[in-house]
Amino acid sequence: MSSMTSIFNITLSSLGTQAQAIARMQEQASTGSRLIRPSDDPG
């Protein structure tokens, strides 16, 4: 695997993770609640 392929795959994975985080924040903002799912409150 070339280094460019590795860099591409790492970048793509990071973008996916960031997109998930943004979607979660948008959902929290639209509902006005930080706790949307039971898993949001681990305590």
Compressed to H and E, one letter per element, the order equals H
Mean pLDDT: 89
Distance between the termini: 43 Å
Provide the β-strand percentage band.
Answer: under 5%
Number of strands: 0
Give the overall shape, derived from the CA principal axes: elongated
Rg measurement, Å = 15 Å
Largest sheet composition: none
* Unreliably modeled segments: none
**Class derived from helix and strand content:** mainly alpha
Count of helices?
1
What level of helicity do the residues show? Answer: 55-70%
In short:
This protein is mostly helical. The protein is built from one helix and no strands.
Walk me through what this model shows:
- The chain is an all-alpha fold and 43 residues long.
- It has a domain at 1-27.
- It is built from one helix and no strands.
- The longest helix is centred in the middle third of the chain and has 29 residues, at 3-31.
- The protein starts with a helix and ends in a 12-residue tail after the last helix.
